[in-house]
Write a structure and sequence with these properties.
single chain; about 55% helix; mainly alpha
C-alpha cells in the first residue's frame, strides 16, 4: 500500500492520459456535436419573429433606478403607488411588494442621512 492507502502511487493503473484528448478523438467529438446540433435544432427562428410586445426586459438595476427616481420626485409615496408609477413608466414590471418595500426603506434612510448632514436642501422627507 502507498502512503495514502492506495495500492500504488499511480492512480492511472496503466491508462495513458495522452490518449484521452488525441487530435483524432477531439475531431470526432466536435463532429458529433455538430451533427447533434443539426438534428436537435431545426432551422433557427429569426430574432424578429420571437419578439412579441416589448423588445426587452429591464434589468434589476434599471428597475431599482426607476424606483429611486419615483421616490425622489415624491418621497412620501406609498409602495402601491410606486408600483403603479413603475408600470406606467417601464411597463410590465415583476417586482414583489417586499422587494419594493426594502428598496424604498433603504433609499429613504439614505435620503434622511444626507439631509441630516446638509447635503440635500430641496428634498422634503
Amino acid at each position: 500500500m502507498g502512503r495514502w492507502g492506495h495500492d500504488s502511487d499511480s492512480d492511472w493503473n496503466g491508462f495513458d492520459p495522452a490518449t484521452l484528448a488525441s487530435p483524432e478523438t477531439l475531431r470526432k467529438t466536435r463532429k458529433a456535436r455538430r451533427e447533434r446540433a443539426r438534428i436537435d435544432d431545426p432551422t433557427p427562428v429569426r430574432r424578429a419573429e420571437t419578439q412579441t410586445g416589448r423588445a426587452f426586459k429591464p434589468s434589476g438595476d434599471a428597475i431599482k433606478r426607476a424606483i429611486k427616481l419615483v421616490i425622489l420626485e415624491e418621497p412620501g409615496i406609498s409602495v402601491r403607488d410606486i408600483l403603479a408609477e413603475l408600470q406606467k413608466r417601464v411597463g410590465m414590471v415583476d417586482v414583489s411588494i417586499v422587494t419594493l418595500t426594502n428598496i424604498r426603506a433603504e433609499f429613504r434612510q439614505t435620503l434622511k442621512f444626507l439631509k441630516e448632514r446638509g447635503h440635500l436642501k430641496g428634498v422634503d422627507i
